Amino acid sequence: MIYPQSLVRLIDELGRLPGVGPKSAQRLAFHLLRSDRAAVDRLAAALVDARARIASCAECGFFAEGEGGVCALCRDPRRDRGLMCVVEDPKDVAALEATHEYRGLYHVLGRALSPIDGVGPEALGLDRLARRLEGGEVREVILATDPDVEGEATAMFLSHWLSGRGVRVTRIARGLPMGGDLDYADALTLVRALEGRQEMREGGVSG
Amino acid sequence: MIYPQSLVRLIDELGRLPGVGPKSAQRLAFHLLRSDRAAVDRLAAALVDARARIASCAECGFFAEGEGGVCALCRDPRRDRGLMCVVEDPKDVAALEATHEYRGLYHVLGRALSPIDGVGPEALGLDRLARRLEGGEVREVILATDPDVEGEATAMFLSHWLSGRGVRVTRIARGLPMGGDLDYADALTLVRALEGRQEMREGGVSG
User: Fold this and answer.
1) Mean pLDDT estimate for chain B
2) Quick check: A206 pLDDT over 70?
3) What is the DSSP letter of B17?
4) Number of domains in chain B
5) What is the pLDDT of residue A158?
6) Considering the domain boundaries, does residue B33 fall inside one?
7) Contact A88, A65 (CB under 8 A)
8) pLDDT at A204
9) Which of B7, B57, B79, B111 is most worth mutating to test chain A (most A CB atoms within 10 A of its CB)?
10) B111: CATH
């Protein structure tokens, strides 16, 4: 190898990041070597610091500071504690928050059911969800797992599991993405869009 | 912001990397938080370590370990010391090495001439190049700066600067990229491809 050992190691470590191939790892490494040394130290410190501090929120499973800590969303008194949106991943919380429309709480499963990978219901940590529903404050649970095989199966399973617990159980709509072309949509999306069709009212659509 | 402070900081630092937008920075951060803590520590150490150790090769300007150190290429006794390829950037050395065809030395300028950005000949560090040519060992200097405005201007300037120094001065060929379509090539590339045309010989092309 023509590179010094410490550069090879840096390229190798950067190349382990998701979406970073050998070529981008090299480009990133070259950039970092040309950067201000303080900037590189800051990045390294941010990495170690975030990894050491961030844990799952003891309530919802989103990111919180410190083991046993509670996240900013669960602590926010302005959130509607009657609504709980169940998602697979912290990323999904971020996506829903970016809409600025949803004002309820979340529940992050951390994964979807996947029998093929040996992920059964016990991996979903449902004790934690059951405990959160015990208080009786939650009126509605919105199942917002991904619209793929695992996510649909998880939603199906949870809707059974939730029945009889005195909450309304809903599933986010599957249909045509906004801004898309109908003739580009896949058949399954079109089937779901038809199944989920809603009455038109003047000036909008009924709920 | 809904994220804990240390996560915001990590996303922010990752987003400063070239080619990493806010969305990818978040994706990388989420991945790192889920990674093994030892793996994150290793990445951080590799960053600090490489930035602290790697310097420019005292001979050619490529990457070397330690201030005043000499790179693996310059140290390699099997390289042809009569050939010197002048490039703008360490990345270019890596690209040429990946061909496994070139066995001479390199000279990394670190930049190209760019009067618009106030980069004049004095920024090219030509003293260093002059010193390397003094021994008289170098027979040929191959100008391999980029085939863009700055790179062409730099090659032009260097060919003047090198005349009378007793070395053959050549420029890498500009022409149609292999595997491409002639009718997709831009006009300037076609002009260069025509200008640089070579006599066909049976079984190949003359030099």
Assistant:
1) 91
2) no
3) S
4) 1
5) 96
6) no
7) no
8) 56
9) B7
10) 3.40.1360.10
Assess if residue B86 is contained within a domain: yes
- If one compares B183 and A6, the residue with the highest pLDDT of the two is A6
B147 in any annotated domain? yes
Distance, first Cα to last Cα, chain B: 63
Domain extent, residue A193, equals 173-207
- Which tens digit of pLDDT belongs to each residue from A158-178? 999 999 899 999 999 989 888
Report chain B residues whose CB lies below 8 A from the CB of A17.
28, 31-32
CATH of the domain at A46: 1.10.8.420
How far is CA A55 from each of CA A66, A91, A193, B13, B45, rounded to the nearest angstrom?
6, 15, 38, 20, 22
Where residue A202 falls among pLDDT bands split at 50, 70, 90?
low
Query: Do residues B27 and A90 lie in contact, with contact meaning Cβ atoms separated by under 8 Å?
Result: no
Q: Give the integer Cα–Cα distance in Å for A62 and A82.
A: 18
Q: What is the pLDDT of residue B199?
A: 79
B39 touches chain A (CB under 8 A): yes
What distance in Å separates the CA atoms of residue B63 and residue B49, rounded to the nearest whole number? Answer: 14
Query: What would the two tokens of residue A72 be?
Result: 């900013």
Q: In angstroms, what separates the C-alpha of B206 from chain A's closest C-alpha?
A: 32
Torsion sign (Cα): A9, A14, A15, A17: positive
Cβ of B18 under 8 Å from any chain A Cβ?
Answer: yes
Residue A184 lies in a domain: yes
DSSP state at residue B117: G
Confidence at residue B204, expressed as pLDDT on a 0 to 100 scale = 56
Percent of residues, chain A, with pLDDT higher than 90: 71
B63-69 LR contacts (CB < 8 Å, sep 24+): B63/A3, B63/A4, B63/A7, B63/A33, B63/B90, B64/A4, B65/A4, B65/A5, B65/A6
> For the complex shown, is ipTM > 0.85?
no
Instruction: Please give, one letter per residue, the 3-state secondary structure of A158-185.
Output: HHHHHCCCCCEEEECCCCCCCCCCHHHC
**Model confidence pLDDT, tens digit, residues A99-121:** 899 999 999 999 999 989 999 99
A55 interfaces chain B, CB cutoff of 8 Å = no
Look at residues A52, A68, A85 and tell me which one is the last residue of a structural domain: A52
Q: CA A106, CA B101: separation in Å to the nearest integer?
A: 58
DSSP, collapsed to helix, strand or coil, labels residue A80 as strand
CB contact under 8 A, B91 and A27: yes
Output the pLDDT for position A203: 60
Alpha carbon of A201: minimum distance to chain B alpha carbons (Å): 36
Closest CA in chain A for residue B26: A91
